[in-house]
Amino acid sequence: MRILFVHNGQERFVQDDLHLLAQSHTVTDWYQPRRWFNPARLLNQVRNHDLVFCWFASWHAMAPVLLAKALGKLSVVVVGGYDTANLPQADYGAQRGGVPRLVSRTIIRLATKLIVNSQAARSEAITDAGADPTKISVIYHGVHPLPLGPLAREPIVLTVGNVWRENLLRKGLLPFVGAAAYLPDVCFVLVGRWCDDSIEELKAAATPNVTFTGFVSDDELTAWYQRASVYVQASLHEGFGLSVAEAMSAGCVPVVSRAGALPEVVGADSVFIDPTNLDEMAAGIARGLSSTGQKRGDYRERIVQNFLLEKRQEALEQLLQGTMSGIFPESSVRNY
After folding, report:
1. CB 235 within 8 A of CB 259
2. N or C, where is the chain less crowded by C-beta within 10 Å?
């Protein structure tokens, strides 16, 4: 199969799909980080491929999906982030209205098939973005499991997220920093690139037990996962939660909000918090810190059993073969 792979970012999960598809198909990487592109070249690319595969229903996917429709080609679009969200309290989501809403809904309507990364993302795509339920397949992200760190851990509480203003509430960075004041003997660590001046707001709110690392290498991040006792994800919106899954694979105890897909990823036997209540957050973190070493192994096993890259690759292949053949039995709506 000849696949035109369309994306506007270099995130690891996007590159994972690119590599997974390239193992069985001829894949052309169409990276479009800016709004301007060569229409004639894109037309030629769509014409010469069997299927257009897009990550997210945003402006970069509009022309490829429109051309695929016009040329009678198939298109598959992965949705479930900014494109389907409506989160005005965090100033986040295309479904708040205007041109972004029109663009995302047009792509979602024209696509042959839609992929979401969780059941929560499926519900959001239907309810907030008007997606046709019969076109949606739930295929969970694939995770690179990390080596399980020591079962006896330091009193370190970790969260990972790039620091820019949108993420202060959406990713729960500001509540994370605020909760540190309630546990002064515990080290709180925020790992992530500083993208704007919102880091100054976080530093102003931080107590002395908070560390801001800035950007770190993959090896350094793995080391933090293996040192930390607890991983906190105090998000208001999550289409999946790759960082918490990676942390669990390294033995961190997940302390998370109930936003989006987080309960699906971490499982019922986890610590849940309300990111708008710092008292409750601190109490939940304290419960996580008291977890036994056996629990660390259990959390890792959940990730290994449910969210490996091999499972995603198999599900993607089944979906693509069904899309090409036009046969969609249970696979069009099943949870792979």
Report:
1. yes
2. C
- Residue 50 tokens read as 């069997």
d(CA 274, CA 212): 23
pLDDT tens profile 184-234: 999 999 999 999 999 999 999 999 999 999 999 999 999 999 999 999 999
The verdict on 33 and 58 lying in the same domain is: yes
Predicted confidence (pLDDT) per residue in 234-259, tens digit: 999 999 999 999 999 999 999 999 99
Of 257, 259, 210, 230, which is closest to residue 158 (Cα–Cα)? 230
Number of compact structural domains in the chain: 2
By residue range, what is the domain housing residue 7? Answer: 2-142+308-332
Residue 241 lies in a domain: yes
Rounded CA separation 117/104 (Å) = 17
What is the Cα–Cα distance from 284 to 280, expressed in whole angstroms? 6
How far from 226 is each of 149, 155, 219, CA to CA, in Å? 4, 12, 11
Q: pTM above the 0.90 mark?
A: yes
Least confident of 126-130, 181-185, 256-260, 328-332: 328-332
Tell whether 137 and 162 lie within a shared domain.
Answer: no
CATH at residue 195: 3.40.50.2000
Q: Are residues 167 and 234 in the same domain?
A: yes
Kindly state whether residues 162 and 276 are assigned to the same domain: yes
- Name residue, tokens 């990730």: 303
